[in-house]
Amino acid sequence: MNKSLSIITGLSLLVFGQFSSAQEIIQDDIKEEIKEVKVDSTQLIKVDGVAAVVGDFVVLDSDIDKQFAQLEASGVSTKDITRCQLFGKLLEDKLYMHHAILDSIEVNDAEIRSYVDQQLEGFAQQIGSMDKLVAYYNKSSEQELRDEMYELNKNGKMASMMQQQIVDKIEVTPEEVRQFFNKIPEDERPLFGTELRVAQIVVIPETTQEEIDKVIKRLREFRADVLDNGASFTTKAVLYTEDPGSKRTGGKYTLNRKQPRMAKEFREVAFSLEEGDVSEPFKTDFGYHILYLEKIRGQEYDVRHILLRPKMTEDAIAAAKEKLEKVRQSIVDGDISFEAAAKEASDEEETKYDGGQLRNPETQDYNFELTKMDPELYAQIQDLKDNEVSPVYKDQDRVNPIKFKILTVTQRTDEHEADFAKDYLKIKALALQEKQLDAISDWQEEKIIDTYIKINGELRGCNFTSNWFKIKN
């Protein structure tokens, strides 16, 4: 498998939904006879479609076709990807999965199922309905699609956890970064694209106490109906919750004490309940909830919740916009700096104390490479000159259905050849990536030798970078 595809599989770490195929467990006593299955004591029939065996897993010919279909369905061009390259990727996936089991790496089934629920809900919203989604993937039922998505995500999670274990403790020293940079020929040093630093001020419309009281009253009515009249919590969640991620599943989530995933307040309430309890209304950043503890399974808690958000009045929305318009005008008039205004007026806790500076979620610094910037953010700042202030934009996020913001570009760095001093963090990331790839390559080389591997048919003609045929040097 070539190195570019190895980067896709080897360093796309810790993501669900990695394109893996469903697996079949192969018993030791039939590995050598994988191409044949006994029908009775006198007859053997050939099993078609087994492309390879890696440890306790098989790769089917149809798995390679599924890889192409999955990539194309995700909008990835397969024009320059060969069948041998995808086959090599599948071999890698199975090698990771086989050794993940040997190393006792366990995945959280409940977490994967919860992720699949959210994943399918999102896909169904995009395509129009769950029925359309099932038809799009050519499945006979929603359950068949759900089961396949579960296997894909479980396999991908196992592979990524194995990969992460390989590279988890790898670090690069400043001297290694320097050596990495110095060994790059001057005429081959990378170009770093134009980068921007962007700051914003956010004003969120205030919710009145009257609207908060309405929401709390309604949630208490739901709770009373469930506890006093035996009404279905699941049905009420489907009908009334304002959480799109769990609406279709009746507000269901699975929590694990060892894996914090939900809001702190949500977890604290969940872990304080007994089976069958329904909580009093409580607040998180997302709104107000009631929570029903359905089942406790060891460290895992199956819960359902109903989320309601207090409505924002038209007066509150208008007041928020007017406030930000005045802030913007003060900045434009030179009465106050953008940084000082952010610290004083912004409602966004994550950015206000940094003078409104946005952090790049991928690099955790303040720089955004222009070609990789979020399209919506780019559209809002593309015409801004340095230190010019944008108009007031109406926006929203998962927590706030309505908010207003203004933006400015605080620094612009044009495209340039890599400079060790200026671009140290980027060069360090490249050095670390190379060291991780080397570690993965070394691990593969060692494990391939130690693992049962058999490649069948025409795919034996593939020219792999990894030593899948165990050819001795």
Strand segment count: 15
Taking the sheet with the most strands, its summary is: 4 strands, antiparallel
Runs in which pLDDT lies below 50 for 5 or more consecutive residues are 1-48
| Rounded Rg | 27 Å
Shape: globular
The oligomerization state is: single chain
**Distance N to C terminus:** 18 Å
How many alpha or pi helices?
A: 15
Succession of helices and strands: HEEEEHHHHHHEEHHEHEEEHHHEHEEEHE
Helix content: 40-55%
Strand order of the largest sheet: 11-6-13-12
Average pLDDT = 85
Structural class: alpha+beta
Strand content: 15-25%
What labels describe this entry?
473 residues, alpha+beta, 15 helices
Describe the structure.
The chain has 473 residues and is α+β, with helices and mostly antiparallel strands. The protein is 43% helix and 16% strand. The strands form 5 sheets. The protein has a 4-stranded antiparallel beta sheet. Strands 7-10-9-8 form a 4-stranded antiparallel beta sheet, with helices on both faces. Helix 4 (109-127) crosses helix 5. The longest helix has 27 residues, at 424-450. The protein is globular and about 75 Å long. Residues 1-48 have low confidence and may be disordered.
